[in-house]
Design goal:
Layout: H1 2-14, E1 32-39, E2 43-48, E3 51-54, E4 59-70, E5 73-84, E6 88-102, E7 105-118, E8 121-137, E9 142-151, E10 154-164, E11 169-180, E12 187-201
Antiparallel strand pairs: 1-4, 1-12, 2-3, 2-12, 4-5, 5-6, 6-7, 7-8, 8-9, 9-10, 10-11, 11-12
Length: about 200
């Protein structure tokens, strides 16, 4: 019953804001997690032909979920959304295949679909990314991690700290910086922010 209540709390946070968090220690079949966070300082900037405009980021949220397939493999999905002034917004779907080299390091590769809007202009891109993520235990209940990915339509990195509230629920603090690129007419978007959230592990 306690697990169900904690799961419901984590799911309820998803409605407002979600972000990536500490990687799973194991990608054994059936191992899974969902991530939810609230943005504390969102930012959104647009680049057009080399000139940068501050779009005054209004919201930042992400949905994250990871599922272990076994044999060191897993699937990871992220939905990220950002909005700002001048009818600007960016949405990104990312689906990656993970390979866990050891409990602390994993590589990933996958598909990225981005959609950007700015002042009535609307465009979508499809691409790929590859990257690596690492984690380490700092203390009995505290962990740290970092993630870096690069592709033809995205470049991103994330660092974070997590604290285990229970065996299934983790509180975490992250910083994420992402560039969405390769839109038509030389338009790119840059986002960054600090996020406070939770991870629920199954």
């Amino acid at each position: 019953m306690k697990k169900l209540i904690l799961g419901a709390v984590a799911m309820s946070l998803l409605a407002s804001s979600v972000a990536c968090a500490s990687p799973l220690k194991s990608l054994e079949q059936g191992k899974a997690k969902i991530d939810a966070s609230l943005s504390l300082s969102p930012s959104l900037k647009g680049e057009y032909k080399g000139a940068t405009s501050d779009l005054d980021g209004k919201t930042r949220y992400r949905f994250g979920a990871t599922y272990g397939l076994g044999n060191h493999l897993g699937l990871d999905y992220v939905y990220a959304a950002h909005a700002g002034d001048y009818d600007s917004s960016v949405q990104s779907h990312q689906l990656n295949l993970l390979y866990q080299f050891n409990p602390n390091i994993a590589g990933f590769a996958g598909y990225v679909h981005n959609r950007g809007k700015w002042g009535g202009w609307d465009n979508s891109t499809n691409g790929y990314q590859i990257g690596v993520q690492g984690r380490m235990d700092l203390a009995e209940r505290t962990s740290a991690w970092a993630k870096f990915g690069i592709g033809n339509t995205i470049t991103q990195y994330e660092i974070g700290l997590g604290y285990d509230l229970t065996s299934n629920l983790e509180a975490n603090l992250t910083y994420n910086d992402t560039k969405y690129k390769d839109f038509d007419h030389d338009v790119d978007y840059k986002t960054h922010g600090i996020n406070l959230g939770v991870t629920y592990k199954f």
